[in-house]
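Researcher: Go.
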Amino acid sequence: MSKRIKVGLIGCGMIAGSHVNGYLAHPQQAQIVAVCDTVDANAQRRAAETLSGAEGRANTAKEEAKKADSTEARERLNENAACWEQYAKDGVKIYSDFNEMLKECDLDAVSLATPPFVHEAPTVAAANAGKHVFCEKPMARTATEARNMRDACDKAGVKLAYQSGGTCLDPTSYAIREHVTSGKIGDVHYGRLTSYRLRGRPNVDMFGFGKWFLNSAYSGGGTIYDTGVYDINRSIYLLGSPQPETISGIAYRGMPPEYTGEEINDVEEFVSVFVRFTNGMSFTYEHGWSCNMAGQPQGIFIFGSKGSFSNNKLFLEKGEWETDDKGNRRRYQGNLVETPLELPDKHFPDKFRDFINSCSNDEQPISNGDVGLKVTEIMSGALLSAKLGREIKVEELYEIEALRTEPTPGWHIP
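Model: Structure:
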């Protein structure tokens, strides 16, 4: 058995449950050894949940081992059970300060299940302590924060992954990326991605979310930071990770019914973004928490000179020339043919296993700090563009983030 990665969980709120289950699903590769939260009850609850989850999985594995139809399966189940039982022997340490956890606890990595405004500080602290970092989405509120996180991890030689990379870990995404980057659909010049909800605003139409979702100072933005981040992340992967050059965005807030709570609500409900990349590609993103639109095509569309992708369907151009009776070309008749997409015969890990694997080898996680930085440049740049009413360059984005007069990050929508 290879060395188990010792993980410290920072943040024990709503999303932390997915992190607990994510690492418990890989008992031979990782072990949660500590949890941290400023609210003691949250930390206590997640520690207990980790121990009880490990115990339940161990008992199930031992029962399944008795019924296993092969020696290999029985041994694997018993090994898993032994790893889960180790949780009860070692326990889970509880902290209220992530700096104390990093100093006192023997860790290989930390997993951030915190809101966006608590991403940069623990990431930089963990990197300086030599720990790998798995971060919740979005990676940061601003491009500057994301760059600081990326640079700190690169300087320390540790891996930085973030949660929305899970959208890329499947055979279809791999195959689409291979077609795009290898030139099989020709010169990829444009793409479009649309994703709408009729009504899906946290704490307005959907409840049980942190109050920070609607406050740009804490969240960075609204729909583009909450749901758009997944689509932008996947598009960057499918396109071969191009570098954004200029960004133009519009944003809107005001869909009925209006928010009537006492907390701040200054984030966009709808956003449209046009991005030019340095390699000549361009892309349009449309995202909406709230949108009075139904029955229209949604998903990702990639335009190439030899073919295209409409969501996961591959179309290749198979046109023919019409000729006259002397064989001279008269007119080209274009024709698109839906073509089966050849999927790779390989296993794809989930996002937590992808991160765990990267901690043990020289490979980068599928959504690493570089990818996360590009995604954040697009998101922050889009809302800044909407605020200024003009297209901006990525270099300009950093300059304005450094010169802003607002006391906290986030581009609010009036």
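Model: DSSP finds twelve helices and 17 strands in the chain.
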